[in-house]
Structure formats: C-alpha cells, structure tokens
Design brief:
Layout (H helix, E strand, L loop, with lengths): L1 H9 L3 H17 L1 H21 L5 E2 H18 L4 E9 L5 E2 L5 H12 L6 E9 L4 E7 L12 H13 L14
Parallel strand pairs: 2-4
Antiparallel strand pairs: 1-3, 4-5
Helix pairs in contact: 2-3, 3-4
Amino acid sequence: KEMELMHLKSQVNPHFFFNTLNNLYGLVEQDTDKARQLILRLSDMMRYSIYEGQKDRVTLAEEITYLENYMDLHRMRYHKAIDTRLDTDVEDRSVKIMPLLFIIMVENAFKHGVEKLRAEAFVHIRLKATRKTIDFEIENNFDEEEMEDKEGIGLKNLKRRLELVYPNRYDLEISSVKT
C-alpha cells in the first residue's frame, strides 16, 4: 500500500508543471517581469510538491497556502479575467491531512473550465473544516461541448489515494449541472 501511495503521489503535478513551463517560454520575451514572478511562484509550488507532497501528513494551513499559490499563478498566466474565490472557514489550521488532497480537483476546474472558456470563467472554492471533518466544494463553469464522458487519471488517482489513506471515512461526489 505504501509503494502504491508513493507512486500515486508522484503523478499528481507533472502535467501542470509542464504546461506552466511552456507558457513561461512564450512569456519570457513578452513580459520579463511577469515571467520572473511566475517562475518564483512555480518554484514555491514545486518545492511544496516535492518535499511536503512526499510526507504522510501536512497541515491544513500548508494545503490552503498551496491552493492560494496555485490560483495566484493561474491568475497571472492567463490573458483574461477569471473570477476565482477561495473561501475558508477553518476551526484549526494545524489539523493534519494527506498532502496534495485538493489540488487535482482544482486543476480540473482550471483545465476543463478556465483554459477552454474565452470569457466569464470562474472557479469558486469553499473549504470548511472542524477538527473532525473537512468539507471541500469546488464549482466552475465550462464549455459542455469540450467535456469528455470518461473519468481522467487525476480523479482515479485521487479516489485511490482516498481509499488508501481514509478507508471508509470519506465521501467524494462529482456532479455536472447544465445551466
């Protein structure tokens, strides 16, 4: 189980980092200052993924900071307005959780929503936590024609990690609603 969990953790972020590096390549000549800021933010995120992501547990505060950095980086890299929100109501930020717990869902919201939409893209996140429970909810808009019916590797990875770390102690609900 530990070997499988280590393998699953190692798959979490490479795709995002490659995409960001490709975006940086083009940005270096266009806007050097913005490219430098993105590189620093990406460096912080990579450091967290590599070092903290390999731990068994991290604090909820660390995970929230990681999500904030991720969202900031995305706001910086797109050339369009994005309505992003991360609302937290956390009783104790020192509560320990599995690292990189929420990032797959956040990445999917950006990948399938923000990246595909030309205008009015949004990602709204609500995180409420007590010492015993964590409720994480993410909502985004997307182009229905761009959506695939199959479940991606990221969600399969998340489900398996939850099964290994929190057996019979979690609920994961994913829904899509036409508006």
